[in-house]
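We examine the record.

___
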Amino acid sequence: MKEVVITIEKLAEKLNREVSLMEVCGTHTVSIFRHGIRSIIPSNIKLLSGPGCPVCVTPTEDIDRMLYVAKLPNVILTTFGDMMRVPGSNGSLYKAKAEGADVRVVYSALDALAVAEKNKDKKVIFFAVGFETTAPSVAVTVIEAERKGVENFYIYSVHKLVPPALEALLNTEELKLDGFILPGHVSTIIGSRPYEFIPLKYKKACVITGFDADDILYGIMMLLKQIIDNKPKVEIQYKDAVKECGNPKAVDFIYKCFELTDSKWRGIGIIPLSGLKLKEEFSHRDVEKVFKMPEIQSIEPKGCQCGLVLRGVKIPPQCPLFEKVCTPENPVGACMVSSEGSCAAYYKYGRT
């Protein structure tokens, strides 16, 4: 690792200017903080955290819709643990549970399906959150529900796709990036090809890395070499897990059940074709088509800068609520909820 750091220092000196690199994976965000990587690389190499946490980018409107549905009679709402604490306009799913709603934490979509099989007199909803990494398992679960004839199982999909979000960031004037540390987990599913538009169209360097300190530092070194040589491309540092073609079987499962749709991202807005919705043949399991939901006017917490943090425009301490009002024990914004959120990572590892 020492040799890589020395090489990074030499490359940074050769550049003789500030370089901004963005990681777009929550696990990378945590690893960068935990290993103190910012403190051991030259000061002209800036690492920015992007929208790499699926919990964080889920907008308030979606939380509010699930709060409404959870309080309907004969409904069991299931979701991952982090989603329980994300603030909506008026409380969280934890609050709804405390007030009597049947909200349950599960570890997978298949666990939610098992709940449906045991409670056939209830409508069981799975709040499906995640990027390309979790979408295949949800697709498999939908297919399994069809095979078993479990009629009381429903999906509310807020799955999001990473490449369209990267393009949305590149099209903003407020962010000047030189390269991306691309997500390792997502890339095991989709491979490296979906990112090729970044060097071809936007002339930005890209490296897919693993999660150890060595992996990330080596990835930074690879990015700097691309920038110096003025030859942007998509490179794979995480070769043990990521192939150029990704995992075709997993991708096939995704598109057996889902199709592309426009999706709203917290802090970014609506990104065309960046989400996944159930295909028409599975629409009888789509919460939005089965349940009549009223128009919900969502309210964002005053002073919260979560959206700017997700876009890499601000770092967490620049938010007036950070540490003073917003803490992991009392999160005001979604970025402080998940362990992969930028604010939570900065609070735990970055304050010193």
